[in-house]
Amino acid sequence: MREKTYLKWYNKIGYGSGDIAGNVIYALLSAFVMIFLTDTVGMNAGIIGSLIAASKLLDGVSDIFFGVLIDKTSTKMGKARPWMFYGYFGCAICLVAIFCIPANISAFAQYTWFFVAYTVLNAGFYTANNIAYSALTALITKNNQERVEMGSIRFMFAFGTSMLIQTITVSFVAAFGGGAAAWRTVAIIYAVVGLISNTISVMSVRELSPEELAGNEINPVVYDKQIKEGELEQVAEELKGEAQTGEEKYSLGAAFKLLVQNKYYLMIVVSYLLMQIYSATLNMGIYFMSYVLKNANLLGIFSWAINIPMIVGLLMTPMLVQKWGGMFRLNKMGYIIGSLGRILVVVAGYMGSVPLMLASTAIAALGMSPLQGNMNALIATCSEYTYLTTGKRVDGTMYSCTSFGTKVGGGIGTAVAGWLLALSGYVGGTEVQSAACMNMLHILYLWMPMVLTILITLILRGLNVEKAVVEQKEK
């Protein structure tokens, strides 16, 4: 029997365009905020790393909080769309504030300014917007193939935006005259672009009603009894009533307990954590290009080597998921290829061969692309597993793992990079760095991504949540 479809092609494209908004913020901050603060504002990389680490601890706590709030929201726009829409206005203001640190205040005031703006952005507005955006995957369709397609489309927009930001920003800043004023102008332009794309995304889809989401299905965990003839209609009415309330009867503590009892959820959280630490170490590329390869503009070329294969892989992912009969084998084999690619990047880096580094980077990115494309569908399947085993729907809370892993992992990676950079004796704005600093840049940009990719590969060997859902339905 063919699954019911819920979305037109333009709904999927419109939804995916929302990742333009997320990535004008994410790409700008992850790739450039450190070098802006060290080389333009004159701040210490180690202190910046510490502030980011502290901020991300607060950020991680807020993820599940906002997830529960989304689950309990009931408006004409739905559960998630209001949070996604209104949250981005705060994102835009905070993004500009980060690049508006006054030069005529004390160093302590500058660090405080950055910490407050960065924390309010990440722990508040960006969390609300991003969790809501991810949760829409489970709220606008019940068709798993459509979820995979949505994930692929959104990440094509994500990687395309990231590639564009990393390619043009250095030249863009130079075109506006360089310095703090130029960075501020660029941040304002990116914030406006983000507002427009976020609004288009919100208005392109509608959430299914609670009744549609529930589908009047009888969960054996909730109704753990033999339903006698004549009782079915009464039970269906009870389910309909629960669906129409739009409320989940659990506290934050109960929601957290549901999540940690799901081993597949924990695997996804750890995988996301490692993926974002990986991304944070790659974001040291601006330093590696500037001081090791002696050409900052190479960052854009390496961005193409990462993002073009990612986009190609994302285009192929829905077809490959169908061909391979699910996501598990595809993700596992993809990351084996990704690990081999990162090993070759290390070899090429020490050979000093930029062409081989680019080719190996592309191989690694292509291998990693399926997991990026179907991660939202994987989380939706994980959420379904929780429902089948506990009788509780925790879609928003479950999707908070995406934001949790992204932000905490990225924060840890950026913090560690800042600490190691400061420890190696990096001096911002100096053309020639010490030998210790050069060695550290090799560790950050070559060795750490390779090790992290191998660790994710090992986790994916056990992440077969699709099989677990089928087994639960057969019980």
Descriptive report:
- The chain has a single domain, classed as Growth Hormone, Chain: A.
- Helix content is 79%, strand content 0%.
- It has 18 helices and no strands.
- It has helices spanning 9-16, 18-41, 45-72, 81-98, 107-139, 144-175, 179-203, 210-214, 232-245, 252-260, 263-282, 285-292, 298-323, 328-351, 354-390, 395-423, 435-460, 465-474.
- The radius of gyration is 23 Å and the shape is globular.
- Residues 216-247 have low confidence and may be disordered.
Task: Give a nutshell description of this structure.
This protein has 475 residues and is mainly alpha-helical. It is built from 18 helices and no strands.
Oligomer: single chain
Average of the residue pLDDT scores = 83
CATH homology superfamily name: MFS general substrate transporter like domains
Straight-line distance between termini: 20 Å
Measured as a percent range, the helix fraction is over 70%
Structural domain tally: 1
Q: Calculate Rg over CA atoms.
A: 23 Å
Poorly predicted spans: 216-247
The CATH architecture can be given as Up-down Bundle
- Overall 3D geometry? globular
What would CATH call the class?
A: Mainly Alpha
How many β-strand runs?
Answer: 0
| Helix and strand composition category | mainly alpha
β-sheet strand percentage:
under 5%
Question: What string, H for helix and E for strand, traces the elements in order?
Answer: HHHHHHHHHHHHHHHHHH
Q: Sheet bearing the most strands, described?
A: none
Tally of helical segments? 18
Q: Can you tell me the CATH topology? A: Growth Hormone, Chain: A
